[in-house]
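Hi,

Apologies if this is the wrong queue. I'm a grad student, and the batch job for GntR family transcriptional regulator from Nocardia fluminea produced an output file that my downstream script rejects. I'm not sure whether the problem is my script or the file. Here is the sequence I used:
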Amino acid sequence: MDSPQTTRVPKVFLVRTEIDLLLADLTEGDPVPSERDLATRFGVARETVRQALRELLVEGRIRRQGRGTVISRPKLTQPLSLRSYTEGAISLGRTPGRILVAWEDVAADAATATDLEVELGTEVMHLERVLLADGERVGLESTYLPLHRFATLRGTYDPTTSLYAAIRATGVELAGARERIETVLAAPREAGLLECTTALPMLLLHRRSVDADGAPIERVRSLYRGDRVAFEARLSPEPA
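Support response: The file is valid. Your script probably expects a header line. Output copied below for reference.
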């Protein structure tokens, strides 16, 4: 077994370090040298460079553009809060948008019925939308609402705008939510809607929101591209 003094650092790590230094001098939209150029510069195989670039793609540092690669803009960092996606994006200087995929009434499955506190099979409103930031597809949001509470949205709501603003306009205020985050890979349909590959890591959020009386408002499944979106939370000490 190698001692700490003799352990060799993997080539891909050394190449990644050199590429990081190279990217530090570039700005958003600048072209990244090709795999061949980087392999020649660092004296390594193209596969070693390819692996380092794959890591940078997943991290969102670079992105494909045409047949080349360029520097990406920083990730959209969303706060974990009761703010809507629209509010969060605007606060970061980004332009939010949405593409409607589906808006329909569906029978509640077991998980949806439990979260919305309705009988199994009860019709609920389902809204599925692609989330945009500056015109780029960054997420896929699937929302379920109790139909008996929000049926009027059918005639008043523009699905390309903030749903939370529309809910508040009905007189309902979001008072709390439970949210879980995990990492997954996108299914082929989801990858197609988000214009990425199924190999790209995703951030999956499950949220259940309630009003001041504890009555359920929504059940949401949100899938975000790991190379385009990050989340942060403000933490404080718990009382002793």
